[in-house]
């Protein structure tokens, strides 16, 4: 298997695959074949037949197993995402990262490792990115070298190409889980205790407003999705996200998604626009995928004006950092009052803070659950639950 992988990563193999790919495209165009309409079995039979014939005619030193792998790779080049297709199909992979044609990495269980695939050159990477974006009407080129998009299956894609990316095209794919993690999954993985989940489920049912805090890749969206599942089904919920990932089973759910500006700089719909509009849509609760800008003031106002039980996430590494970041964002958004007034506004809006972290070995943990309270005109956090790193356990404070 190791020898097979080495062969498929060699320059000789990439050149052979490129020649065969061009040969098959020539056959398809010559016969005017509509392979996009073919069932997968018919396409596989067509590719296998032409690969075998090409190997024989060209007298290539390729054995049966190598020919089978070649056929699969060429099929992926014809109708799939090329070298990335096998990684997209692997459900154990959470993230795919491409740093130029020769450096592809995947994340499994919180750890990045090199993937046994590569591209022929920068143009090959760009071509695959364009194929990924084509069905959703987005494009990437020198005049528009960056793109952030959501695929039809919910996966998020970010791509950036030269001249902005100096060492070749870079692609990041955050894959969308077909089955979201549930409470039992998180307990089984050791991410949280049953005691904490019981407390939080009761808090959600009692309409306590929550903010989930953590660094990049700590599992904030996954945990927010779990909390949202405990919202009573009779309530009307409006979700607002940059890339729709939340999956609520409530009957009254309205899903809203932000929209970037077009190439002319027009048509942007921001999170703040959607929060303001959501307030006119008779919501019981608003679930904001992430607060990162001037929408913070509108979200706090919503939580203070009859929309208790609303939730959001925030990038921060500790509860104290989270409070400072909320104050910073509010200042950028144009808050004119003093710090004590802002602290009272945040303390009145939010009841609980859930801190998440990804440990150095890739494990994700709920590290703290805090209650927000005002003491001597100062907004503070009081720990309720805490993760004990020494024995990887959870304790009630």
Automatic annotation (TrEMBL):
It comes from the Bacteria. Residues 80-359 form the Bacterial type II secretion system protein E domain. It holds the Pfam family T2SSE. InterPro entries: P-loop_NTPase (IPR027417), T2SS/T4SS_dom (IPR001482), T4SS_GSP_E_ATPase (IPR050921). One of its GO terms (molecular function) is ATP hydrolysis activity. Belongs to the GSP E family. This is Type II secretion system protein E. It comes from Oceanococcus atlanticus.
């Amino acid at each position: 298997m190791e020898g097979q992988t080495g062969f498929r990563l060699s320059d000789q193999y990439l050149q052979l695959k490129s020649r065969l790919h061009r040969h098959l495209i020539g056959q398809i165009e010559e016969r005017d074949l509509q392979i996009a309409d073919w069932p997968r079995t018919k396409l596989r039979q067509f590719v296998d037949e032409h690969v075998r014939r090409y190997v024989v005619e060209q007298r290539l030193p390729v054995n049966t197993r190598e020919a089978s792998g070649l056929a699969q790779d060429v099929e992926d080049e014809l109708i799939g995402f090329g070298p990335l297709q096998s990684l997209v199909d692997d459900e154990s992979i959470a993230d795919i990262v491409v740093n130029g044609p020769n450096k592809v990495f995947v994340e499994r269980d919180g750890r990045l490792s090199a993937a046994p695939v590569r591209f022929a050159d920068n143009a090959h990477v760009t071509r695959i990115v364009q194929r990924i974006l084509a069905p959703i009407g987005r494009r990437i080129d020198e005049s528009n070298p960056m793109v952030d998009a959501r695929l039809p299956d919910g996966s998020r894609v970010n791509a950036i190409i030269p001249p902005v990316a100096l060492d070749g095209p870079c692609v990041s794919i955050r894959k969308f889980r077909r089955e979201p993690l549930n409470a039992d999954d998180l307990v089984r993985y050791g991410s949280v205790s049953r005691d904490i989940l019981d407390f939080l489920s009761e808090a959600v049912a009692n309409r306590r407003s929550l903010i989930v805090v953590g660094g990049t890749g700590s599992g904030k969206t996954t945990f927010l999705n779990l909390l949202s599942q405990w919202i009573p089904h009779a309530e009307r919920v409006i979700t607002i996200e940059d890339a729709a990932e939340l999956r609520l089973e409530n009957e009254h759910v309205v899903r809203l998604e932000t929209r970037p500006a077009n190439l002319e700089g027009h048509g942007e719909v921001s999170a703040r626009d959607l929060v303001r509009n959501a307030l006119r849509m008779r919501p019981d609760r608003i679930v904001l995928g992430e607060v990162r800008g001037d929408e913070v003031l509108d979200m706090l106002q919503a939580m203070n004006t009859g929309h208790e039980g609303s939730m959001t996430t925030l990038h921060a590494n500790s509860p104290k950092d989270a409070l400072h970041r909320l104050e910073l964002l509010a200042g950028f958004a144009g808050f004119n009052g003093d710090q004590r007034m802002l602290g009272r506004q945040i303390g009145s809006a939010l009841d609980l803070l859930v801190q998440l972290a990804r440990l150095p070995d890739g494990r994700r943990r709920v590290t703290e659950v805090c209650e927000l309270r005002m003491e001597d005109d100062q907004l503070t956090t009081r720990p309720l639950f805490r993760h004990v790193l020494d024995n990887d356990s959870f304790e009630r404070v």
